[in-house]
Design brief:
HNH; globular; four-stranded parallel sheet; 2 domains; 37% helix; endonuclease activity; P-loop_NTPase; 6 strands; 8 helices; two-stranded antiparallel ribbon; alpha/beta; HNH_nuc
């Protein structure tokens, strides 16, 4: 049970909040797109895994946050009738977050799911399923860019779109969602659950993260459930 009451606070939460801020040196630890903590003066506490996604009030799930980052770091919001491009590092939890949100009226375009649909293994090196998944994904994206959805939400999981791809998404009116639990967490997940080369993929993403146009509608960056 959360220490936060319906009104927003309890005495126990206020004590815990003060302890977290002291522990973190009153410095905002919410990561930006490159994985580097914000570093501004913090007066609030953020849930790394949002309560809406099962996160609790244990100290390991809490971090100091400035008011701006805390406001922006909430869970992804379902947007009916929208094209949502979900961006984030490998092992960031993009697929899990999208599956949490999607309903029967929605669609998900996820390369890893397509590899499995064509008989491959997730994160494997099965050449034919990988090639077929790439063709199917490209065709689905082209269709969606030509005729954006009008009913349910369509989520496109795209780890690192290039500038041309970002521009095409923006022209189609897509909303960009960044799912980023931070470099160290992604590296821990890669070491625990992925083939050895995934650590390099994570490092490469943070070295050169996608650049989103400032004029594009962009949802708040958020941590992820894994």
């Amino acid at each position: 049970m959360s220490l936060l009451a319906a009104s927003g606070s309890t005495r126990a939460w206020r004590r815990l909040r003060a302890w977290i801020l002291d522990r973190d040196g009153w410095t905002c630890l919410v990561p930006g797109p490159t994985g580097t903590p914000c570093g501004r003066y913090a007066r609030t506490v953020d849930h790394i895994v949002p309560r809406a996604h099962g996160g609790g009030d244990e100290p390991g799930n809490l971090r100091a946050a400035c008011s701006t980052c805390n406001t922006r770091s909430g869970a992804l919001v379902r947007r009916p009738g929208a094209l949502v491009v979900v961006i984030g590092p490998p092992c960031g939890g993009k697929t899990t977050r999208v599956r949490d949100l999607a309903t029967e009226q929605d669609a998900i375009v996820d390369y890893d799911d397509l590899v499995e649909a064509f008989g491959g293994t997730r994160y494997g090196r099965d050449r034919l399923p990988i090639r077929l998944a790439g063709v199917a994904r490209a065709a689905a994206v082209r269709s969606l860019l030509a005729t954006p959805p009008t009913g349910g939400t369509v989520y496109i999981v795209h780890t690192a779109p290039g500038r041309g791809q970002v521009a095409a998404y923006a022209r189609a009116g897509a909303v960009f969602e960044l799912v980023d639990p931070g470099r160290e967490e992604c590296l821990r997940r890669a070491a625990r659950e992925r083939p050895s080369q995934w650590a390099r993929y994570v490092a490469d993403w943070y070295t050169d993260p996608p650049r989103l146009p400032t004029s594009a509608p962009t949802a708040a960056p958020s941590a992820s459930r894994w």
